[in-house]
Amino acid sequence: MVAERAVDEGRTDAIWPGLRYYRFSSPIRYDKTQTLAPGIVVVLQGRKSARLGASTFSYDEMSCLVLGAETRCDGTVVEASPGQPYLAIHMDLPPELLVKTFIALADTAPAPNGGTVPNYVAPVDERVLDAFTRLLPATDHAIDRATIAPLVVEEIVVRLLRSDAASAIRDAAAIKRSAARIQKAVQLIQQHFRRPLGIAELADAAAMSPSHFAHTFREVAGLAPMHFLRNTRLDQARVLLLAGGKRPGEVAAMTGFDSAAHFTREFKRRYGAPPAQYARQLASAQPQSI
Fold first, then answer.
1. Range of the domain at 267
2. Which of 5, 59, 102, 111 has its CA 20 to 30 A from that of 247?
């Protein structure tokens, strides 16, 4: 299923935001350091190592890497060949869904074993793998993306947070104290990302001091609040670009960026190509209706 979607070497983005596939037919080291959001990487074939901060992780077929927070990453595909290419799925874990699920599970989820760790490698849970086999075809058609895919993504997040992988995602005690207040700031960003928003206003929504809010938001959501605001704007811009009919400058103005140049720079950093080029590439790679 992934081999059919990852037809080109390197990264292939899915229509579903934050979901991408990787194919490499030979060992390769990434030339640039990436900044990765909280997410999960499932390796289906081959082997890879990744340096995340001061630690190096190795993971191979039917194992997964859970990224608990925004982190710098240098990656190397160690095992791959034309006959057996490296194949992997990488999906960002939406911070707003993490916070919502933390609140729902606060009193029921078991405490993770061994305390909080920044990242986590383990064999992929069969239930998580099954969810991915349902998610991928659910991203192929607009009606399924609107109805089925969100439920499957939520299932993946719930299963991760009920497993030992939760120790890589967050400290349960900190979540129980702060998630509900952080959720108010998350909702403010989602509703008003088109206008200027600063730390002071977001902190006020969470009833915290600005410095305490910035620290707590990262602790709960896995990335800095202004990074979440930027990513929210970029994700919405991506939706508008893929819908067609609007130029990058128009999209930039509609999603809260102060200039087209700033928008283009941030979009390329997140998605690997300038806005117009990215939209053309993804449209040509997706025969289904978007």
1. 228-285
2. 5
